[in-house]
Structures are given as C-alpha cells and as structure tokens.
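Session log. Operator J.P. requested a structure for one protein chain; no other inputs attached. Running the standard single-chain path with token output.
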Amino acid sequence: MPFRLQAIRLLGGEPTSDTAVFAGLGGAPVDQRGMRMPPRRRQKSIYFLGLTIENARCFTETQELRLVDSNRCPARWTLIVGDNGVGKSTLLQCLAWMRPIPYYPPAKDEQRGIQPWLHDQDPPDMARLFRDGASRTALRAEMVEALDLASRPSSTRVRTGIELYATDNEFAGAQLTVNKPAATVEPFVITYAANRHMGHQNAEELSNSQPVDLLQTDSTELIDAASVLSRLDHSALKGNVQSEGRLNSMKRALADILPFIEAAGDIDVLDPEDAGGGLRFRTRNGNVPLDGLSLGHRTVIAWIVDLASRLVTRYPESAKPLDEPAVVLMDEIDLHVHPRWQRTLMRQLSQHFPNVQFVATTHSPLMITSMSDVNVAVLRQTETGDHVVIQNDPEVVEGWRFDQILVGLFGLETARSERVEALMKEREELLAEEPVSAQNRQRLQAIADELSSLPMAERPADRDAMRVIRQAAASIRTRRRNRT
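Structure written below.
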C-alpha cells in the first residue's frame, strides 16, 4: 500500500517559524523577530530497535521485526524482503505510526506521557489495520535514545503500545498498553513511498509538513531539488558561508552517489532565469539539464536533496546537518536503480548521512550483499497461505552467489532458465529407467554435452579462459581419435 512522505520534528525543537526555516537553508538561524537564535544544545535522538505486530492485515499470530545489529544496537541498515503483498509496506507504515508523540490526558489529575502517533488518528484510519474478521489488533514498538549511531545507546528504552478493538469488522475502540518513559524526545522520521517523484514543493514549505494519512496517499511529491540548490547557491554568492557549506555538502553527496558524475564541480547551479540555466550536470555525454536525465537519476536526485533539505530544516544551527540523526523508512529503495549502482548505493548513503537509520524494502539480491553489516528480515507466506511470518536473521548470506540468494531468501524454486531446468529434469527421468536403453544413453550424452557447454564462470575473463580450455580439450580428443 503506498504511503506519503512525512517529516516529523522533535518535541519543542526548531524551526518554530518560516523565518527560521528560511534561515535553515540560507543563513544563520533567527527567530520571528529576526534575532539570532542561541546555539542548540545537542540532544539525544531516538532509534528503533524493533516492532511487534499482531492481527494486522496479513499478519495473524504475534510477529516481531528486529531492527538491531549483531551487538543488539540499532542497525544502521535493515532490508525487508519478500514477495509482493506480504506486508513489507505495512511494516514501514506501522513503524511510522508507533513513533512516540506527547500524550495529554483528558483528566487534569492524570500524568502526561507519550503515545504512539497512531492513537492520534481518526478511528476509520485505525480500523484499516484490522485483519479481516479480527476483533483485536496490537502493535508495540521499542526504541532507544542515543546521540548518534556511532555512540553507545543509553540503557533507557522507549516503548509504545496500542490495542485496537473491532466488533463485526467495525472499529470499537483503542487502548494504550505501554507508553514510557513519561517524557522523551520525539524521533525525526522521514518516510518515502515507492511512488515518490520530483515535485515542486519549496524548501520553505517544509515547516508546514504535518503527519498525513499514509493509507490514502497515491502520490509522493518530493521537494524541488533545483529550487533548493539554487537558493543555497544564491545565498552563497552573497557571502553566506553557512549556505556555501551546505550547498557543497549536498553536491558532494550527489557526486558520490550518482554514477555518471565524477566530482562535485561537475554540478552547475545556474540562474534559472537565464537561457540554459538551472541545475546542470557535466557528464560524458555533455552538459545535461536536470530534466534531460533519466527518470531513475531524477528520482534519486530528488529524494537525496529532499532528505538533505529536511535535515537542514530540522537542524538549522548544525554546522553539519547531514551528519545529524534521523530515521528513514523507504519503500523499494532499489526503484529505478541499475544493478551496478545498487552495489554501492547503501555504502554511499551511509557515508553522507552517517547517523541516519535506514529501514527499507527491496526486491534486489544485490542490495543484500552490498554491505557486510546489513540486517535482513524475510517475510514469507505460510504453506496454508493465510498469513505471513517474519524471519529475522536469516542464514548468513555474505559470500552467497546471487542464485543462492534468489532461491534461499526470495523463494524462487530455481535460478536456472526454463530450458536448462527442462534438460536437467529430462536427464533425471532417463537415469531413473533400469536398464537404460541404448537410445536413452545417446540422449543422456547429448544432454551432458549441452549442459557442459553452459557458461559456469562469473567474470568475462573466466568465461573466455573456459572457452579456450574446452577448445583445447576438443582438439586433443580429435587428435586421439585420428591416431586410432
């Protein structure tokens, strides 16, 4: 189910005005009176450790999604894999819904605390989580406070929980189950749907980003990347050192992540009012404008600049806003990304956004093997087909071939072509005959010759070497036959 991008600000955090937002992208942070704001004291952020889900959509019995690394610390990267329709997007939505927000009890004598954001939604929206026929749905999330992903997390655990009730498939109420501690910072969460695309939203509109219904969104419009970079460039030309630093950090990130750009200097931010102006990229094929790039390149540029802009807006006083903490939930991270690019994308994102916790869905075995410390969760339909189970920490995949990953994690019966599979099945059937007839022995030899001619090496150089070896072997066999 598609869901829309949202940016969630910390409780009591800046920016508090449009002035502060503009300052975040183009100058020193100021308040509504135009006065310079005092330096922000660095505070801890919140990272996810896990999610428990019960009787929600395709999930029945209690299932747990673990988001930790081998040291039980928040995993920098978690990849969720599984067939279409097994609940990958549902898990991302539930993580966003279970983030803690302030809880103001209706009775004045009750203690203020926290609640999951889901509890603040309209009853019809909450009811959409129900599994058909279920009378109760439960969600629980566990988080931890930390200054950043490199720091040792505190021992304080932040937990949110909620139970939803239904009668005759109609929403009947909700009850908070565990929501502690009483007060905590709110995690900065950004979600990206699979339908994301370059939009026309301006940077100053980020302050008005409010939580939205993730279930009813059919389009995720990202920020206008050209507008963001143009504003930063304009401010930098006027002598704003902070804007210059932020522009350069975004250009460096784009240059490292985009496969067709060699250096940050190959990205030109020109006056959009001039002929041939706007955002342009010096590639091997010439100087190409943003709208002249492929859909895949434009989409990746859009969400990288979008993510960077939201970090700048959230942390207007930071000297390095791209280094600040956040949680990014992304559906189909491999969308429009070439396999060669998939091998490097995660590592480059971690380099330029070192304190962002990424939780993403993917259909790519290449993404799983691109980093050694990736946390992987596999969603599998049960044999009965009536519900889905979550397999955390599947068998170690480091060093596996892609065909092994396709069969072992993605559920394919085989990674071979239909023709090769048919030959192997025929050989198995012929060998089962006793005794094997002379005609079938000839057929078995023909099958063996055809299978042995298939390329087994992985690299082109190895395949060439194997071809030379086969030719030499055939030549030797011919000479031997001629001598006899």
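Operator note: DSSP finds twelve helices and 18 strands in the chain.
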